[in-house]
Specification:
By secondary structure, the protein is an alpha+beta fold. About 30% of the residues lie in helices and about 25% in strands. It has a four-stranded antiparallel β-sheet, with no helix packed on it. Helix 3 packs antiparallel against helix 4. The radius of gyration is 23 Å and the shape is elongated.
């Protein structure tokens, strides 16, 4: 069994997506954006460089240039100074999940798509109106396989199987 994750997830950091500045960037030809904030009682004020790329059907898309490594990214994360995820060294939350957590996440995703109540203990619900019967059957079969793995893993963990 994999060891528990001891590193931080990107969910632990404040994030600064470039899309937050979309309206401001449409107004002109910006080369940088000034940021000013307080993090852990320490004030920060500096500018973050921008770059842009041309889109296939016209226009352009803006990107941050990481203040630490100058890599082009769409999201910066606050570790005192805003830097890219590579400089922080953190992983996405899904990369830190244990195998049983992945099974629960998949089961909940299927249940959400089917409009059922979250949680494998709630059983199977009705076919959503407008969903093809073949799609419903495929999702129910996958849900059954995933829940069987969850129950088997739980029983194995409790030592109830031989």
């Amino acid at each position: 069994m994999p060891a528990l994750a001891t590193t931080h997830s990107l969910n632990d950091y404040l994030k600064l997506p470039i899309s937050r500045y979309r309206e401001q960037l449409k107004q002109g030809n910006a080369k940088y954006i000034e940021v000013s904030y307080t993090h852990r009682s320490k004030p920060y004020q500096y500018s973050i460089q921008l770059t842009k790329t041309s889109c296939n059907y016209g226009g352009h898309r803006y990107w941050w240039l990481c203040p630490k490594c100058s890599q082009r990214v769409s999201v910066l994360y606050c570790a005192g100074v805003y830097v890219c995820r590579h400089c922080i060294g953190a992983n996405y939350g899904s990369q830190l999940q244990q195998p049983i957590d992945r099974l629960f996440s998949r089961a909940d995703a299927i249940r959400q798509r089917l409009g059922w109540q979250s949680g494998v203990a709630h059983g199977i619900g009705e076919r959503p109106k407008g969903m093809h019967h073949s799609t419903y059957e495929r999702l129910v079969n996958e849900h059954e396989r995933v829940t069987a793995k969850i129950w088997q893993s739980t029983l194995d963990k409790l030592g109830c199987t031989s």
